[in-house]
Design a protein that fits this description.
alpha/beta; VC0802-like; Rossmann fold; seven-stranded mixed β-sheet
Length: 372
Amino acid sequence: MNIKMVAPCLLGTEGIVANELKRMDAENVAPENGRVFFSGDFNILARANICSRYSERILILMGSFKATSFEELFQGVKSLPWEQWIGKTDCFPVKGSSLNSKLASIPDCQKIIKKAVVERLKETYKISWFEETGENYQIQFLILKDNVQVMIDTTGQGLHKRGYRAVATEAPIKETLAAVMCDLSHVMSNHTVVDPCCGSGTILIEAALKALNIAPGLHRSFTSEFWSNIPNKVWDDEFQRAKDAVKTDCDFHGYGYDIDENAIELAKENARKAGVFNKITFEQRNIRDYTNIFERCSVICNPPYGERLLDIEQAQDLYKIMGEKFDKRQGHSYTIISPDEDFEYLFGRKADKRRKLYNGMIKCQVYMYFKN
């Protein structure tokens, strides 16, 4: 069965997600703003859920069409083959969003889409009542400039929920964004990675998972695991495939420092849960005391800034300290995310490369220094 799918992702990461899906043998990979379209069979659906480091979730694309009236929305949704997925007793709640479209009322769109699916299934199953006590098929919709996309969520909790971070520090970086920063830093199995303001350890844990080739979804479950129309063997095979791909002879090591003792304890606990505790050393240390003792290393960090923890003046002082401590040196690179447009001026030199990304709703730049 060839399934059309879409992977929503953080703005600015579409190319990274597309390349990742191609490496998984997905077909017809096509990145667009904030999402990547692709297709594949049940195995690709399961593989993308288990192995994607950068996607936010995996959705089945049921169909797309234009709608400027509720009647057009109703008919467009009703024409789609919902019975291919949803059974007589299954749950099918509806949620979604609308941007720059005539159909702007989310509650009204939810009701129309729900009604259209019900009418389609009534005709198919010849029943008038749906008890919705069975498997869960969360329907999602996006209406953008009057173009409607209707999808079914296969993931459940977002893919950034790896299962290792039950507790976090006050302003943690999202796991998917941390993984993207590790990708931009070209983290590999022989890398030494340092985060001098590591918080609850997310960047270093994601770096270790990448270096060891541990699939981020290896220790969690997904909504579609429990769907009767996907054979259990598919999930068994894909989980086993991910386990077989883990590298056991890996020279990677991470070093995390933070001024906050509680953050260090949290980071250690998270690393234990992620199965990478023996690959990361955490210590309580002020960034003012940072010294680069490694022959080669990649520094990757998400320093606290005005909109998160510190006031603007404190954050800017921190950037100046980082500029002094992160000196140009052969074999050393620095990848730093910040929303401050004056970062390069405060840091003391222009980045060799910049990448626009979002940390939550905050527009940021990833500043990369790798030339000596």
